[in-house]
Please model this.
Amino acid sequence: MNEQETPNTEPSRREFVIAAGTAAASTSVLGLAVLDAPAAEVQGGAAVRAVGPGGVQVAFTVNGQKVQVTVEPRVTLLDALRNYLDVTGCKRVCDRGTCGACTVMIDGKVIYACTMLAVEAQGKQIRTAESLIANEQLDRVPAAFVNADAQQCGFCTPGFVVAMKAVFEGNANPTPAQVEKGLQGNICRCGTYEQMRDAIYALCNQKRGK
Amino acid sequence: MPWPVNRRLIGRSHRRLDGPDKATGRAKYAFDVKRPRMIFAKILRSPHAHATIRSIDTAAAEKMPGFRALHIIKKAGADVFFAGDEILAIAADTEEKLDDCLRAVRIEFTVLPHYVKESESLRSPTNTAGGAGATNIVGVGDLATDNFAEVAFNGAAATHQGDYGIAVISHQCLESHGLVAEWDDKLQNLTVWASTQAVPATAERLRVVFGLQPGRVRCITNYMGGGFGSKFGPDIQGETAAHLARTARMPVKLMLDRAEEVTVGGIRPSAYGNVYIGAAPSGQIKFYKVDCYGTGGTSRGQTVNFGLLPYVYGPGIPNIKRKHRVVRTNIQISRAMRAPGHPQNAILTELAIDDLAAKLDKNPMEMRLINLPPNDSADAAANPRTFPGMRATIYRREIEIIRRMCNWDQNWHRPGAGQGTIRTGLGMALHTWGGGGNGPNPTRVTINANGTVLAQSSSQDLGTAQRTVTAIIVAEILGLQPSEIMVDIGDSSFGPSTGSGGSTTCPGTSASTLKAAETARDAFLMALAGRLNTQPAMLSIEPGVIVNRANNNQRIPFRQACGMLGVPSVQGNADWPTVPDRAQNAALREEWQTRLTNLGVGGVQVAEVKVDTETGVVRCSRFWAVQDCGMIINKLACESQVAGGVIMGINYALYEECIYDRATGRQVNPDMEFYKLGGIQDMPNIYVHMMDMPERGVIGIGEPPTIGTAAAVGNAVFNALGVRVPYAPYTPERVLAALANRR
Model:
C-alpha cells in the first residue's frame, strides 16, 4: 500500500518516520498537529514538517489521568510510560513486538507498547494493568489469575491480564478457545498456561473438562 | 514429628499473597525501579566470537550530549572469547542519549579463529576459548565398572546402539539480568535493587569488589522476574553499574536488553552421545555404555551429570562404561539451569531404553518397572525416610498412578503402529533430584500489640510463592490465616540466607520459619499467661482465638490477646543449626535434615504427541506428571511448579535452540521471535498428581518436574512414528529427515 492510499488520517509509523527523516534539519520543535495532518499533506514535499530530533511534548491519558511528557520522537510508548512516567505494569522484555509483556490498551484496542512511538499516542486513551485494581477491588480478570495461581515470577502477567481483559471487553461471552486465541501474542517463561486455562474457564463460567 | 500433626493450612491450596500486586503491575521489580536523578547504562560488547582488542577510542563518545560516565571492562590488548563479551560500559542521562554515546565508540579488533559448533570444536587442534589447555577439550571423564568389556555382553538377548542429543538453550529470563545501583553522598554505602536469586550473596560480592566494610552494601529484591539458575550474583553487569554509579555520583540502572539476555545471560549446555545398551530376555538391562560430549560455551564444567549416567536406573545396571568430553566453544558461559545436567542425562538414558524395549518387543512401562533402581537397604536401615531407601517403592506407586491417569494400557501401542497422516504416540520418562534444605536461613516472627504479625527473612521469591509459604507456616502455628501475616523478604539488611538454587529454598526457609513461629508463639503465651495470672500450659491456640483453660475455656480473640501483652511486641528467632553442630549432634541432624526437611525425590511423566507425517510438525497434545516432594506446604503452588516445569521441558523438546552462525560466530536468534517459546495454544492440558508424603519433611520441587519432560516427548515421538528422531529440538525438519532416512 502506498501512502496516498492510506485510508485514515492518522500517520502510520512508516509515514511518521518518513516525515521525521526528510526534515531532520528543521530546528523548530513543532506541536503535534502535524501528526494529525492528512497523509497526502505529509507526502506533499514542501509542506513536510517534522518533530525532533530534540524533545517533543506529548499528551495522552493513562488510566484516566491526563499526563504530559517531553520525549525525543524516537522514544517508544513503552519507554515513555516506564522511564518517563513511572508506569511500570507494562514490562520491557523482547522490545520488538513478540512477547506481549508490554501489552496495553489504546482506545480499547490491545497493542504492544514497544511497537508504537510515544508521539503516535498523542491524545489517546491508554490503559495498563494498573487500571484493573481500584480501592483494593480487583477486576475479575486479574482476580481469576490470582485464584487459579496463573502466575509465577509475574513479569509477563500484567501483559496477559490486559490481553485477556481486552478479549472480554470486545466479547461479553467468549468461548475459552476465543480467549486463548487472544493470548497467543503473549509468552510466559515460567509456564503458567495450565493455570491460565483454569482462569479462562472460570471467567467463561464453564467447567473445565480436562 | 516436628511439624504439627493436625494441619489446618499446610498441605492445602492457598492463593499467593502477592498475586494481586503482580497481576495488576503494582509489584516493583528491579527493572521497574526509578530513583531520583537516576541515569542509564549499557555495555558495549564484542561483535566477534574471538578477537584481540587492538584499540579503544572513547573520545567522541565522552563528548556526546548526555554522557555521564565510562567504565572500561577490557583494555586494549585483551582477548574477547565470544560475540557478546563485555568491553566497556557507558552511563548517560537517557537511554536514547546512551545509544548515541555507544555508537560513537570506536574499537579495532584483530579477529581470531573461533568455533561455535560442538562437532567442529571437538576436532579443533587449538584452544580458541581461553585459559589453560592446548585444545578446546577439557574435563574428560572416562569410567567403567570392573571388567566391563569382558562381562558386559554376556546374556544380552537384545542390544541397541543409537545417537541422541539435545541442543544449547538459553535461560531467557523475562526480567533480564541487571540492577539499579545507588551510592550515598560519601560513597561509603551502596544500595542495589537487583534481579537475583541470591540476595545476601549479591550484596556480599559487591562489598568485596569495592572493598567496603561489612554491612555497607544492601541488596533489595522485592520481586524478581524469572530465575532458573542464572542469577546468583551481580555479575559483570551489576558490578559495572555500581562502578558507573560511583563515577557519576548518580543512581544507575543497567538491565540487559533482550539480545544481551539471550547471548550472555547463561546457557544450558548441550549433550550429544552414542549409547550402546543391552538387556536379558527378561528385559533386565545388563549393560549401558555411553560416549558423550557437549558444550557449555567457554565454561569448563560438565554438560551432563557424569556421576548419574545412566540416569535413575544406574544402581540396578551391573555393567556401565561412560565417557564424557567437555568441548569448549566461543559462545557465552553456561549457568546452572533448572536441574543442571539432569535433563541431558534423561535424554541419554530414557531414549535408549525405549529403543531397546522396541527390540525386545516390550512395553516401555514394563521395561521401566523391571529396571527400577532397587531400594537401598543400607540407607533405609540408617534412616527410614531417606529417598534411596524407598525409591523403587515410590517409583512403582507413581507409575501405577500415571498408568491409570493416562490410561496407558489402552492408549499405548507398538512404535509406529498408528495409521494415517497424523500419528499419535505416548512416551514416558523418570527423574530424580535432591532438593534438600540448608542454612543459614534466620527467620524472625514478631507478634505486635496491635495484633499484626510480621515474618522476616532475607530470602527471595523467584515466582515460587515463597512469601506465601512463609505466611502459611506462621499462620498455621498462630491460628491465623495466611493473609493475616505480613512477610518481608528480599532484603539483605535482614541477614544471611541461602541462594535459591537446587530446589533448596522451600525446605531451607520452612524449617527455620516453623521454629521461629513456635518460639514466637511460646513467648506470646508466656507473656499472656502472666497478664492472665495463669500458666502458659493453661493457654492454647485455636483458629483466631486463645483458649484459657484456667478460666472456663475463655476464648480471647487473637488481636485482643495481643493488646493484653503489655509490651509492644514479642519475637521468635530461629535458624538452622550450623554444619558442625549438626555433624556432632545426631538428634539435631535427624530433626532438621530428616524430619523437618529431607532430600531426594522421584517423579514419572508421560507425554502424548501428535505428529504430522507430511509437515513434520510435532504437537504435544496431553501431558501427565506424578511427583513426590515430601510434605507439601501449598498444594496450589506445588501444582503450578510442576506444570511450569513440564511446559519448560516441552519448550526444550520441541522449540528451543540457540543457533549460531559458523562464519561470524554470532547467535542468529538472540530474541524471542526466532528463539522459540510456546504460547498458550502450543501447550497441552497438563494433568498433575502430587504425592503428599508429610512424614518425609519438606523437600524442594523447583527442578524435578522439568527433568524428564523432553525425554518423555522424545519417546512419544518415537512411539508415534516408529522411527527415532535423534536430536532435540524435534523440529519439523528433523522429523522429516528421520522419516526420510527410514525410507
User: Anything to note?
Assistant: Residues 1-42 of chain A have pLDDT under 50 and may be disordered. Chain A touches chain B through 59 residues (CB under 8 Å). The two ends of chain A are 46 Å apart (CA to CA).
